[in-house]
Amino acid sequence: MVRSFWPGVRLIVECKPSPTFLLFRRFYHQPNKFLQKTTVLPDKPNNVLIVKKPNDIKTEKALVEVANWLHESEPSMNIIVEPEVAEQFQKELPFAHVIENNDYTRTVDFAITLGGDGTMLHLSSLFPKSAPPVVSFSLGTLCFLISYKFESYQHVLSDMIAGEVGLMMRMRLFCSLHQSNGKRIQIDGTEVSDRQVMNEVTLHRGRFPHLATVECFVDGHHLTECVADGLIVSTPTGSTAYSLSAGGPIVHPSVQSLVLTPICPRSLSFRTVLLPPSSNIELKVYTTFCLWTMQ
Description:
By secondary structure, the protein is an alpha+beta fold. The protein has helices at residues 57-73, 83-88, 117-125, 153-162, 242-245, and strands spanning 2-5, 12-26, 47-52, 78-80, 110-115, 133-138, 148-149, 165-178, 186-187, 190-191, 195-197, 200-204, 212-218, 221-234, 258-265, 273-275, 281-286, 290-294. It is 16% helix and 38% strand. A hairpin with a 7-residue loop joins strand 15 and strand 16. It is elongated and about 60 Å long. The protein starts with a strand and ends with a strand.
C-alpha cells in the first residue's frame, strides 16, 4: 500500500508488535531448534485456504492440481479460495468454497500459498488479526519466505495433516496513522484503517526534492531526529527486503526484534538500530510532502 500526503499535513505513524504469522516447516531426522512442534491445528483440519499468484499460468495449473488432490485424499476437507479465483475456476473446481465478507480468521484452519513472497504478503493481509499456520510452495520469482518446492506438495501436505510438522513464528507490525492532533488521517473522507504489516513500514520523501525530517520516539521517549530520504521500521522477516537494500542487517526470524533503518541519512553516524519486539515506535514527520508504504 502506498499513500502520499501534501503540504499542511503532519503525519504520525505508530508501530507496535502484532499477532504472529505462522509458517510450517517439516521435521527431518533432526528437528531444527528454532522450530516449535505444537498442536495449533485441530485433530483433523477441516478448512484450508489456497491462495495463488494472480495472472500466472504456472500457479493456475498448480492450484487445480493441489485442490483436486486434497479433495480426493481428504473428501471431508473444505477447500476455500478467493472469490475471483472461484469465479475463474468454477468448472475445474466446482467443490471450492468462498467465504462471505472475506472473514477468513474464524474459518480457516491452515493456508497454502502458491507463488512467491508477494503471494505470502497478500495472504498476510487477508488476516488483519490472528493468522492461521501457512505452508508455502515456491512458484514465484523471489522466494525468501517460501519453504518447499511444488513437486513435493503431496509429501508436505500429508505430513502437515498428520501433524508431523514444526512451526516458525513470524512477527508482524501493527500500524496506525494520525494527524498532529491525534485524529486519524482521512483520505477522500474515509479514515485510514489500522494495518497489519509483515515486512516493513516505510516513510519516504517521495518526489519532494529535499530530505525529510523524521522524529523517532520509542515507548514515549525521544530516540533521535532522522534527516534522510526516509526511514524503515521492519520485522525480522522484512530485514531481507527494503531494509537490506538500505544497508540494514539480516535478522533471523527467531530473533524477535524491530529493525530501524534510515534511507540515505545525512549524518554518517546514523546506522541501523535494533529494538526490543515489545517497543512502541512513533514516527513524526516534519516536511511538506511525504510518502508511506506498508508491506
